[in-house]
Structure formats: C-alpha cells, structure tokens
From TrEMBL:
This is Ribosomal RNA large subunit methyltransferase M. It holds the Pfam family FtsJ. Residues 186-279 form the Ribosomal RNA methyltransferase FtsJ domain. Coiled coil: none annotated. The gene is rlmM. Keywords: Cytoplasm, Methyltransferase, rRNA processing, S-adenosyl-L-methionine, Transferase. It comes from Paramixta manurensis. Catalyzes the 2'-O-methylation at nucleotide C2498 in 23S rRNA. It catalyses: cytidine(2498) in 23S rRNA + S-adenosyl-L-methionine = 2'-O-methylcytidine(2498) in 23S rRNA + S-adenosyl-L-homocysteine + H(+). S-adenosyl-L-methionine binds at residues 188, 221-224, 240, 260, 277. GO terms for biological process: methylation; rRNA processing.
Length: 366
C-alpha cells in the first residue's frame, strides 16, 4: 500500500493536497497528490511504497489543518461484483493488517456519496464477520489496534486500508456528531463545541473548561460561542456592537460590551479564555490574538481565520508562522494548532495554548 488517503471538506482538496505535499516533503517523503475537484478526499501517492506507512506514523495527525482523516490505502478496488464484494476487500487487507480493532465503512462527505451510506451501514455487518474470521479484525472492538477503513467513492468502487488509533481521527468519516442545542442562539455554537472536542483532551476538560473561569468573546453576537462558555458556567465578556440573545443575558453570566473587538482591552487580569469569531482579514485577527497572548491577557485562545478564495493553505500557514515567531521572539512557549472543522465553511479554527516557561535559550523579559 503506497498511498495516503486524506478525507477533507468538499472544495478544499487543493488545500489538503498542498498541505500533505509540503508536510511530507519536510520528512523527506516524496510523492504526488492526486486531486479531483469536489471529491471530498485527496490521495497522496508515495514514490517509495514503505513511505505511506512512515508518513502515517510520523506525521502527527493533529498537525494537519485540512485533513479530517488519514489512512494508508492500496489501489482502488473497481467494479466489485455485487454477489461477492467481500473477497477482494479481504484480499487487499490480507498481509497488510492483523487483529484490527475496529471497522469503518465510510464515504466522502459529499451529497452524491451520502446515498451510499445506507449501503455502507448494511455492508459493515457481513464484512466485519468475514474480517474477523480471517483474523484481520479481532473478535472484539479495541481502541489500541489499527482501524480498518473501507472508503466507497462510488457503488462498487472503494479504497481499503488502515489508520492508527494513536494518530487518526477517532470519529466515523472524521466527523464528530454533535447535536445542535435547541436553546443556542446560532448554529455557529457547534464550531466552538467541536473545537473543544478536537483541541482539548476529554480528561482535561474539568481543568481547562472549568466552571467559574473568565472568558472574552470577540465578535460575540448573537451569542452561539458565548452560549458554550455560559453552559460551562463561565463568566463571559461578550464584545460586539450587535444584540446578544436575551436568554444569555438573563443568565447573569454575561457582560455585553458594545465595542470594537480590536480596541477592547480586558478589565480583569484573570481571563483564561479568549475566543474570537469576528469576520475580518486573517492577518488582522492573527495579530490581535498574538497581542493578547504576548500581553498575558489570556491563557488559551480559540479563533477563526476566515479564508480568502485563493492560496488558502499558504494564507493560514503564513499567519500561524507569524504568530509563532512573535511568541518565540518574546520568550513565550505556546502550542499552536489549527483545523478546518466539520462545522467550519470558508475558514479554519485555531487553538493556541500558552504554556508557562520560557522558550529554551531565550530570556522571558516580561
Ligand atoms: C460570525 S458572527 C459571530 C457569531 C457568533 N460567534 C455566534 O456564535 O453567534 C461575527 C460577528 O462579529 C462581529 N464583528 C465583526 N467585526 C467586529 C469588530 N471589529 N468588533 C466587534 N465585533 C465585530 C459582527 O458584528 C458579528 O456579530
């Protein structure tokens, strides 16, 4: 198996391809990305067969921005015979995976492919039984063993391969299923909730999303992001000239500032979270976030960078590099991650966590 299959948002195949080509090359893994516009996935074909698995092991999935899932696969299985689709799939996996811990039969996240999902659900049951009989899958689910993926791009046509549970998305199709809370003021509430799931390990929620924390929400109206913070019993300074949802204001946990988010300065020194969903040029938002971190006005931040139509991977990379440089130049240690979330459209979500302690070799002068 010499290909790495990456699932992505439909319309972002070029960005996903540019990113994997760039990040693979930094590991001296060379190949080329096959891009089909609007396919909802990208294939990165390695020149050296063994490099596909090396890339899967060495490229941290968390550091990919545009990929929702990362799987090693072989050649496309075409025209599977309807009377026996299982044998060719078992054949492809034999020798490649042993004692897998889970089976996911998936499709690209496109309208056309959605039709196939019903079939996938039904097909999973007999396929799982056969894979278990062949010892390609264990007889029980295990989160410690490789995940077997069968990815149908059309009826009878699929890629088959595996991912590692320590370096993949834990979600079916790479998409966390979140339920829209009926009392939230806007659908974008799901972006922040998804960001929490993606960026903050579940066992750290009690500490890092704790009740009583103070938060600032820039570009808060009507309050979908503020809602997430209020739900976790935080006190929120919501900054926006527009109106906030009355039910949020009635919670008694929100102070509304009708101000420009670029001029707003915190009035307290114990703000833990800064979140920002202002529709603005990415470079302006990135600079503002860097300033908050440099000044020690927050500990963690989650913000969206709204992307231009062209060179979107380059735009995100440049802004992240700029923030990284600024922080390092000031002796600030931080963990920076970005992801195009399922609930993001023409944008990516960035998470930065300030970690106490200076960057090695630099003096913290503040
Ligand atoms: C996408 S909406 C935010 C939606 C919000 N996160 C939610 O979940 O309901 C963007 C908001 O940013 C606000 N905004 C844009 N530029 C701003 C600025 N310079 N200062 C404050 N708010 C700004 C707009 O008024 C708008 O309400």
């Amino acid at each position: 198996m010499n290909k790495v299959l990456l699932y992505c948002r439909q319309g972002f195949e070029k960005e996903c391809a540019a990113e994997i080509t760039d990040k693979a090359a930094r590991r001296e893994i060379f190949g080329f990305a096959r891009v089909k516009e609007d396919a909802g996935y990208v294939l990165f074909e390695c020149y050296q067969t063994e490099d596909a698995e090396r890339l899967l092991r060495e490229q941290p999935f968390d550091e990919l921005i545009f990929a929702r899932q990362m799987v090693v696969v072989g050649e496309l299985l075409r025209d599977l015979p309807p009377e026996d689709r299982i044998t060719p799939i078992v054949g492809m996996l034999t020798g490649a995976v042993e004692k897998g811990g889970e089976l996911r039969v998936e499709v690209p996240d496109t309208n056309e492919a959605k039709e196939l999902l019903k079939f996938c659900r039904k097909f999973t049951v007999p396929l799982r039984a056969s894979l278990r009989a062949e010892k390609i899958l264990l007889n029980y689910e295990s989160a410690k063993r490789p995940v077997v993926h069968v990815f149908f791009i059309a009826p009878g046509h699929c890629y088959v391969g595996y991912s590692f549970p320590t370096n993949n998305s834990p979600f079916f199709m790479g998409i966390p299923r979140l339920k829209f809370p009926a009392d939230a003021p806007s659908r974008s509430t799901l972006k922040l909730e998804e960001a929490f799931h993606v960026f903050i390990p579940a066992d750290e929620w009690d500490e890092r999303l704790a009740s009583g924390m103070f938060a600032v929400d820039l570009g808060a109206c009507p309050g979908g992001w503020t809602y997430q913070l209020v739900k976790r019993s935080m006190m929120v300074h919501a900054v926006d000239n527009g109106p906030m949802a009355p039910a949020l204001m009635d919670s008694g946990q929100v102070t509304h500032h009708r101000e420009d988010g670029f001029r707003f300065r915190p009035t307290r020194s114990n703000i833990y979270w800064l979140v920002c969903d202002m529709v603005e040029k990415p470079v302006r938002v990135a600079n503002l976030m860097a300033d908050w971190l440099l000044n020690g006005w927050c500990r963690e931040t989650i913000f969206n960078l709204k992307l231009p139509m062209k060179k979107r991977y380059e735009e995100v990379s440049q802004n992240l590099a700029m923030i990284d440089e600024k922080l390092k130049a000031n002796g600030i240690n931080a963990q920076i991650r970005a992801r195009q979330l399922y609930h993001d459209r023409e944008e990516v979500t960035v998470h930065i966590r300030r970690i106490w302690g200076a960057v090695p070799g630099r003096r913290d002068e503040r």
